[in-house]
Amino acid sequence: MRILQVVTLFSPDGLYGGPARVALNQSSELAGRGHDVTIIGAARGYRDLPTELNGIPANLFEAKAVLRRSGFAWLCAPGLTKWLRDNWFRFDAAHIHFARDLVVMPVAAAARRRGIPYVLQTHGMVVPTAHPLAAPLDRGWTRGILGDARAVFFLDHKERQQLIAVAGADLRLVELGNGVPDYPAATGAPPFGQPEVLFAARMHARKRPVVFVEMAKELLRLGIDARFTLVGPDEGEGPALRAALDGDPRITWEGALSPDAIPARLADAEVYVLPSVREPFPMSVLEAMSVGVPVVVTGDCGLAPIIEQSRSGVVTDHTVPALVAAVGLLLGNRARARSMGERGRATVHEHFGMRRVADRLENTYTDALVGGR
């Protein structure tokens, strides 16, 4: 099949996070099965726009901001629309990683007008909201685009209910979890070496990097001998994070890292911590588990149930004392932590491998091409 993958934003520092990573993983697996895959989207931060991503042909267009506001909703890519007008004929179906923004919404609307089979994957980004612009946008675009999609992929029951709340129950809803490739396993820290506790995500308020720093300070105050490292691009929390770091050399922010380098960076850590709230299905947690690193997440994380069930980490509440206790537990018993990491790696291999994801995609694309539900 000739498949078009559409994503809002690509950048060297992985600013758009999980959706871009998911699209690249899917594209690589599908291309490996012989499908003709092309990636399109807006781009920011490249010296020269790449013509391929992870070996997949890519057509990227400079991102422009309609309004000078943080976030991605006001991004657009003017050259993308013209390119699509000239190239729709090259594709059998479009897989659109969908959000309420001015990059992917026009693409989905154009596919809908032209009768081109398209599927949507919303990554927990299309939810009921009281934002004053959401109601007219949903009436004019969102509901129709969702309703006419040949499939709308959802992560879990919560996202399914959110999509129904936005666009009604008559959607072609298909469950699809995220997946990761088979990354090399962590080698494990030296038995008497200084362990590292890692946070790898965007520096955004919802991710709570400052809370990670507060946790680190308390663990150090309690006498824990460890390094605490944050990796990721700034998305608004940079000033608060720098103030919180306060010059302690044992707690550092390394800045952004190429998404391709994240799995290997995770494998160097002893514990991975993501203290964020309302996290639907964090790719960084899945990647940490895949390399055999135990994880600490909060209770409303979408992966919390499987982490608890597989005993591959610690699920705790949002408070600093609870996070301190969870990380202290793992650092205080490295054998237990390694066992958790091994169970996490096995769990990801069994339930979140790319083979399972690609099987579901192929079946759904085939149904989309024949117009089946």
Automatic annotation (TrEMBL):
<dbReference type="GO" id="GO:1901137">
    <property type="term" value="P:carbohydrate derivative biosynthetic process"/>
</dbReference>
<dbReference type="GO" id="GO:1903509">
    <property type="term" value="P:liposaccharide metabolic process"/>
</dbReference>
<dbReference type="Pfam" id="PF13439">
    <property type="entry name" value="Glyco_transf_4"/>
</dbReference>
<keyword id="KW-0328">Glycosyltransferase</keyword>
<protein>
    <submittedName>
        <fullName>Glycosyl transferase family 1</fullName>
    </submittedName>
</protein>
<dbReference type="Pfam" id="PF13692">
    <property type="entry name" value="Glyco_trans_1_4"/>
</dbReference>
<feature type="domain" description="Glycosyltransferase subfamily 4-like N-terminal">
    <location>
        <begin position="16"/>
        <end position="180"/>
    </location>
</feature>
<keyword id="KW-0808">Transferase</keyword>
<dbReference type="GO" id="GO:0008610">
    <property type="term" value="P:lipid biosynthetic process"/>
</dbReference>
<dbReference type="InterPro" id="IPR028098">
    <property type="entry name" value="Glyco_trans_4-like_N"/>
</dbReference>
<dbReference type="GO" id="GO:0016757">
    <property type="term" value="F:glycosyltransferase activity"/>
</dbReference>
<dbReference type="InterPro" id="IPR050194">
    <property type="entry name" value="Glycosyltransferase_grp1"/>
</dbReference>
